[in-house]
Amino acid sequence: AVTAGKRETVQLLLDCGANIEARNQQGCTALRAAIQANSFESCKVIALLLDRGARMDAAENNGTADTVLLQALKTGEKELVRFLFEKGASTEATSEDGSTPLLEALSMQDTQLVRMLLER
């Protein structure tokens, strides 16, 4: 439901007591899976999950340990990055390998993302 962008289904599952921080077989929370789905529909699910208390700082179990913001940056979706800023994503949070959002944007050579991060 999360990766398919089925907001109503996700809402129903949460209303019925589903654990918002539960992980799939790859170790991703619903929030991370929605970000990886990278679709217009998944943005609605991301908003719902954050409104319902999904943690942006939850460590990932799949070996990358990227922060939610780093995952969003890697999609290149600037509106998603802005939305995460509005919801309190930290530009200072680092992944397990020491990557920061700014370093990631620089490595992507995306001047808009770099500028956006420097303005924070």
From TrEMBL:
The keyword Repeat applies. Pfam families: Ank (PF00023), Ank_2 (PF12796). ANK repeats lie at residues 1-25, 26-61, 64-96, 97-120. The keyword Kinase does not apply. Keywords: ANK repeat, Repeat. PANTHER family: ANKYRIN REPEAT AND PROTEIN KINASE DOMAIN-CONTAINING PROTEIN (PTHR24198), ANKYRIN REPEAT-CONTAINING PROTEIN-RELATED (PTHR24198:SF165). This is Uncharacterized protein. It comes from Erythrolobus madagascarensis.
